[in-house]
Amino acid sequence: MSEMDFGSSASTGLKWMAINACFSLRSQNVDSMTENGISPFNDDLHFMLGAETITYTDKVMAGKWANYMVQTNLTVWDAWTRAGREAFQTVPASTVIRFAWWGHGDNLGDQIQSILGGTSGEVSHDGVQVHPFP
Amino acid sequence: MKICIVSLGLCLVCSAASGSGPPLDQFGTRFTNADCEIVWKTPTNSLPPSVWVYRVLPSHFSASVISNLIALGEFAPNERVANLGPDARDLGAICYSNDKRSLGIHRELGFIEYRYPRAEAVRITEGVPTEDEIRTMGTNFLKMLEIDPSSVSPDIGVIDDTAHNYQRNPFRITTNTHARIIGFGRRLDGIDFYNKAESVEIKFAHHAVVRDLYLSWRNLERDNLYKTASPETIVKRMRGGECFAQVYGETELRLPDIGGFKRVTIIKATPYYYGEWMDKEQKWVYPFLYLETKVDMTEKGSVISMPPVGGSESAPANPQVRWVEKNLTNQTIFLCCPILGELIKQ
To answer: Could you point out which of A26, B189, B199, B322 has its C-alpha 20 to 30 Å from the C-alpha of B228?
Structure first.
């Protein structure tokens, strides 16, 4: 992760990056990396998406994310969590799956059709439980 | 001749209701092991003696519910849109959208979604309802949505949305709960929907502003009543390959080879109703049985030993494959099985 440099200032450059892998954005690791000045993205990336916990390589998860972003007015982050919730609806009831983001929280309202300006403010990290439903 | 055709048509309708079941194959891998020992070790008095299959009808949200939701989003009449995306199939949907919020009331599907993403700010915590407050506020929303309280599961979930905010010079991590979510699941005849597939979920951000509201509450009508299948029948169905296995895991979700199962002990049996994803069409609502089991098994696998980089005189030059067998006991495996027994009433 420390070797990455996600983000581009170009108008059509990279603004969001998703890594659908188990523990890709585990809280303790994100805290530790940030504390030690390690960041896989530059100031042009709005935020990264990933999983705090175990996740599944569901065959339709990425497609659902893209569909929700392109075909509805869901934000990039909302589309990510909703795709996860839909894809993981039938996993074991006791398995907790949390999706996460890391980056500039001020950009969380980004939609693929309307990007909220450049990045600003401090960096944050947050996660939300996508399975089981609350 | 016409009578014959009509009769055949009726029979096809009957079989669609009673002969089908929930799509249990979506839950995992078909359990196919006719030889392993199966032990039923859970009391059966926790299971209902009979279960209903429900027919899904178009929903009818009242004018009051619709008007309250439009008021929640402060939508103007000219912000009404045909749908919230090309996937929308509900021609009777009432949808509104502007650059801040959107609302979809899908009457055919029994589905409502309200979204206000900019209500959330990860560093603002003022006015986020406490757990006690959100329970009261959530209950008030159920009334506003005209949800019958007797159809709500007592298993009410509350989740905090807590962010880690990083500050530099000096480095500091602050955590703050900037939103809180409450979820109400639906219950039919004392049976909950699996994973709250039918539910109301509301997320409150700072100053108690509603950030999201989702409702999936189809209009259901009782169709056929069945006896609950007996443990003997369930075990027979397991042996017959009618059940599907899934594994619980915090770090790994690989299901072991079912062929290696030696003994399956059923320690808990919970009935659930199966609900499709919120905006998916569903014609029937079926119950099924969710079994928690402890499995003793022999797991077979291969271990590959790689030669050291650069080679070594004492080590083999090529990768060595070795087959290993290990016995595992008390592994938690879940099984989803059909629950319907004999038809009691049509």
So the answer is: B199
Return phi, psi of residue B24, to 5°: -65, -20
Residues 48 through 67 of chain B touching chain A, CB cutoff 8 Å: none
Q: Are B262 and B297 in contact (CB under 8 A)?
A: yes
The model's pTM is 0.88
Å between A126 CA and nearest CA of chain B? 4
> How close does chain B come to A9, measured CA to CA in Å?
23
Asked whether the beta carbons of residue A95 and residue B120 sit closer than 8 angstroms, the reply is no
On whether the CB atoms of residues B44 and B231 are closer than 8 A, the answer is: yes
Distance CA B261, CA B246 (A): 13
Number of C-beta neighbours around residue B243 at 10 A:
24
What does the CA dihedral A111, A115, A117, A122 come to, rounded to 10 degrees? 50
Cβ–Cβ pairs < 8 A, chains A and B: 114
Interface check for B26 against chain A (CB to CB < 8 A): the answer is yes
Report yes or no: B250 at the A interface, CB cutoff 8 Å. Answer: yes
pLDDT band at residue B269 under the 50/70/90 scheme: very high
Residue B71 confidence (pLDDT)? 97
Domain limits for position A106:
16-131
- Enumerate helices (H) and strands (E) in chain A, giving the number of each: 3, 4
Dihedral sign for Cα atoms in the order B236, B241, B242, B243: positive
Q: What are the chain A neighbours of B253 within 8 Å (beta carbons)?
A: 54, 56, 91, 95
Q: Do B117 and A78 touch (CB under 8 A)?
A: yes
C-alpha distances (whole Å) from A68 to each of B120, B182, B231, B306, B326 are 20, 23, 43, 44, 45
Secondary structure (3-state) at B67: helix
Contacts of B35 (CB under 8 A, 6+ apart): none
Task: Please report whether residue B95 resides in a domain.
Answer: yes
Do A49 and A19 contact (CB within 8 A), yes or no? yes
Find the closest chain B residue to A85 by CA distance. Answer: B277
Residue B125: exposed, middle, or buried by beta-carbon count in 10 A (0-12, 13-18, 19+)?
middle
Domain count, chain B: 2
Domain around B124: 56-220
- Say if A9 falls within a structural domain: no
